[in-house]
Amino acid sequence: MFDYVIETENLIKRFGEYVSVDHVNLRVPKGEIYGFLGSNGAGKTTTMRLILSLIRPDEGNIRIFNKSISEHRRYILRRVGSLIEAPAYYGHLSAYKNLKIIAELLDIPDKKINEVLETVRLTQYANKPVKGYSLGMKQRLGIAIALIREPELLILDEPTNGLDPFGIQEIRKLITDLSKNHGMTVLISSHILSEIEAVADNVGIINEGKLLFQGPMDKLKHISNNTDSLEDVFLKIVGRSESL
């Protein structure tokens, strides 16, 4: 029996007549990396914003750590770190000073700043202005900000978007380390199958707001029968939905 960190039940979000999230039942197992895969506009970001209580669902329920987000929002969000869209920071300040501001607001000791900088491999750049960072370094700083409260759940929306191959590899290593060596549950979205395949234990495929597939990565590979590529399988799953 799985211990799920995130469970959604018939989650629906509408924007006017447009249904962005359509009866989504997400199940994210504890301690694993869940890859949330779909094309741009498929509903990934909206689902993540619903999970983080940044917007409210029109219908359905969300449970995190086996508690309802609508009833235990503050308790839940204290245990969650996230990076949705671009990270927020002061470009003229160093990474250390950016984290120091957050640490003081949250009453977090300075030693934690050094720990998260080491985790995201920014220690040697800690005292340099963030405006001079590469995009990949800025993304890693965003993840450091998400990690400073030692979350049990990390939610990352397209964290490798726009990065060069080196930056992508750095983010992959970081995410894998957080799950395998620190026991963190990670929900990560992407529109690129290879990025999800490289890190995820479980995968959910969403298209036009509907969750079309959910399960272990091995199950998705099994569907291919070793004849189709995973990209072919993904296109078949999405194509089957679009033909309905």
Automatic annotation (TrEMBL):
It comes from the Bacteria. InterPro entries: AAA+_ATPase, ABC_transporter-like_ATP-bd, ABC_transporter-like_CS, P-loop_NTPase. Transmembrane segments: none annotated. GO terms for molecular function: ATP binding; ATP hydrolysis activity. Keywords: ATP-binding, Nucleotide-binding, Transport. Residues 6-233 form the ABC transporter domain. Pfam families: ABC_tran. Belongs to the ABC transporter superfamily. This is ABC-2 type transport system ATP-binding protein. It comes from Clostridium beijerinckii.
